[in-house]
Amino acid sequence: MTNTITYKYESLKSFCEDAFCKLGFSTEDSKIITDVLLLSDLYGIESHGMQRLVRYHKGIEKGLIKVSAKPEIVFETPVSMVIEGHDGMGQLNGRFAMENAIKKAKKSGVCIANVRNSNHFGIAGYYAKMACDEGLIGFAMTNSEAIMVPTFGRLAMLGSNPIAMSMPATPYPFFFDASTTVVTRGKLEVYNKNNEPLHEGWALDKNGKGTTDASDVLKNIVAKAGGGIMPLGGEFEYSGSHKGYGWGMVCEIFCSILSMGITSNHTHIGGKGGTCHGFAAIDPAIFGDSHDIEEHLSTFLKELRESPKREGEDRIYTHGEKEVFAYEDRMKNGIAINVNTVAEMIDFCKFVGLDVEKYLGDVNLEQLKKQSSYE
Amino acid sequence: MTNTITYKYESLKSFCEDAFCKLGFSTEDSKIITDVLLLSDLYGIESHGMQRLVRYHKGIEKGLIKVSAKPEIVFETPVSMVIEGHDGMGQLNGRFAMENAIKKAKKSGVCIANVRNSNHFGIAGYYAKMACDEGLIGFAMTNSEAIMVPTFGRLAMLGSNPIAMSMPATPYPFFFDASTTVVTRGKLEVYNKNNEPLHEGWALDKNGKGTTDASDVLKNIVAKAGGGIMPLGGEFEYSGSHKGYGWGMVCEIFCSILSMGITSNHTHIGGKGGTCHGFAAIDPAIFGDSHDIEEHLSTFLKELRESPKREGEDRIYTHGEKEVFAYEDRMKNGIAINVNTVAEMIDFCKFVGLDVEKYLGDVNLEQLKKQSSYE
């Protein structure tokens, strides 16, 4: 069992906002970064919330992330935008891109925006949700450091390349957010921490053989030594490996290719990040009555949830339901943070000069430090 | 081994064009239908070429497909279109939709079109390729009779819901065309004909248990008795079943939801087809210099093909390469047609009143009929 400490949403919000301010971000920018990170924790996607703080902090220290960078629109039409991210925080570039895409989509009906030279932007779903909250269909995606091995290959050439889509529906919006790899690097990290063997069809070793050794795969990814994670569909064509690889390509095209940015296989080399993102906002009203369309979707989602279950299962989820339940639970009962992550947050407090006890309470530091993997 | 008869492309073209004319389609419409069907055979996707003739012929006989229907634009903006298909041939509705989407995309930069009340339209890739041939990015997708069981369910609720995307690149365009199920119904039919057990993770029986019995699954799909094919990602969340199911939903939204058409679970019920399609055309020039963008994609595709191969593999394919090779081979050496399909084509000739020998040559009918599964 992993030890956790539970914090109220408001406490983590204050901590995070103040910490990013101390790093040099404006109050407004700190609020945006915090909002993206905490939505991830509220949705139960631990790997992209507080657990990411250490990577952002190190990214800023190393100069990969430029605190003072401002996103800049370098090319635009009424239905499109290319944004130069100037190595800024992914969350700020992402939010800027989607806000502007929404504005254009409200006028033109649709807008596709992409961003080059950015950094990790958190969960793709955050930006898709921004459009959905405005009554639009939203898409968001990002490339990343190469971790996906193409079908028949043995070197990671694409990122986890998640694609998210959201669209208004009742009682919950449709909210689909998934990597185009069979699993994420975060999942491998969890298996590694728990010393569990990976499932077959998840990963290759550096020689391109299937492996269940998480630690080995993670080391090879960092060292760019070969091997990596398989596309959705696994190792072989019979299980659809080439399809996941194809979805990874779709993501790459809307992120790095159309923006003339850096493809996943060239990011994070030589002190340069170079992450690229893609966004789209579409107004359902360009197809008819938005309300009728929303009802039509809601009916189909209900039919799916109410359709017969397979043996041993008592419910069918529609995409976004689990996130809604997690959100409600965590807003009410607080967010349980892994002790290793709390130790990282404490170090982060000290690094930026925040009063640990004020933000994170009187936790047993010595005890936590022993359990922390933070270096 | 399956017996085949090899025909020249031109012979099949004459046969098919004349046969559809005899069914009541105009010369122009027959040419379009033929072009879609034969591209499938030329690309090596047998299940959607000549092998489909019998289904179209039966669809027309049953009144599911209306020969005289004309697609009608019922809602449009500079970036969108909703088309009423009036139960016409899917190929005619599809081609009409993509032609108009291309026109609008050349003016507005992007156009999303969907079609309701249509029929099976052949391979989605045909329409994506239409946009690509005009220098645009093309998307095409379709819902279908329900065959995909949602994760944790035991009743087919979504179609095979293929999504295709194509974009210009050298020496081959990017051309990705894949069902969002782990495999297609056509693949199950092949396993059934060969009496081979299915792979695990492909299908469920009517009680929602994993099964390897192709014949049973196919029967249950037709009878709507339960069971069906799994989404890309297979049976379980650990292998990404919910992701394939999510892609199936994306397809459904752009086909049946936005067009206010019939969702897969309600199509092909009570003498009504109701298939819906979705299309998009995007001009890369709305992001910058089209030529630079095409070169950027071509470079990445080359890097993928040239990246290290896993043990036992000597090449990595990029999407669309296999189709280009198949096309070149078949245009040169002819198209090998399964004898069962030839028998169907002979019956089709007789039904519409075409001279069998003139179109299909002096084949040994008795011998073929014995081998045919056509009823």
The number of helical runs of chain A is 13
Quaternary state reads homodimer
Q: Using DSSP, what is the number of strands of chain A?
A: 12
Pattern of helices and strands of chain A: EHHHEEHEHEEEHEEHEHEHHEHHH
**Integer count of domains of chain A:** 2
Major sheet attributes of chain A: 7 strands, mixed
Most extensive protein-chain contact, per-chain counts = A-B, 81 and 82 residues
Note the beta-strand portion of chain A.
Answer: 15-25%
Largest sheet, spatial ordering of strands of chain A: 2-3-4-11-5-6-7
Mean pLDDT of chain A: 94
* CATH top level assignment of the largest domain in chain A: Alpha Beta
Which stretches of chain A of 5+ consecutive residues score pLDDT under 50?
Answer: none
Cα end-to-end separation of chain A: 22 Å
CATH topology of the largest domain in chain A: Ribosomal Protein S8, Chain: A, domain 1
CATH superfamily of the largest domain in chain A: Malate/L-lactate/L-sulpholactate dehydrogenase, NADPH binding domain
The structure class of chain A reads alpha+beta
Report helical residue fraction of chain A.
40-55%
What can you see in these coordinates?
The first copy, chain A, folds into two domains: 4-62 and 334-371, Orthogonal Bundle (Hypothetical Oxidoreductase Yiak, Chain: A, domain 1), CATH 1.10.1530; 72-182 and 230-287, Ribosomal Protein S8, Chain: A, domain 1, CATH 3.30.1370. Chain A is an alpha+beta fold and 375 residues long. In chain A, α1 runs antiparallel to α2, α6 crosses α7 (214-223) and α11 packs across α13 (365-371). Chain A contains 13 helices and twelve strands. Helix content of chain A is 43%, strand content 15%. The two termini of chain A are 22 Å apart. In chain A, the strands form three sheets. Chain A has a seven-stranded mixed sheet, sandwiched between helices. Chain A has a three-stranded antiparallel sheet with strand order 9-8-10, with helices on one face. The mean pLDDT of chain A is 94. The first copy, chain A, has helices at 9-22, 27-42, 53-62, 90-108, 124-133, 185-193, 214-223, 241-257, 290-306, 321-333, 339-352, 356-360, 365-371; strands at residues 4-7, 72-77, 80-84, 110-118, 137-142, 163-167, 174-178, 203-204, 210-211, 228-229, 275-282, 335-338. Chains A and B meet through β4, β7, α8 and α9 of A and β4, β7, α8 and α9 of B.
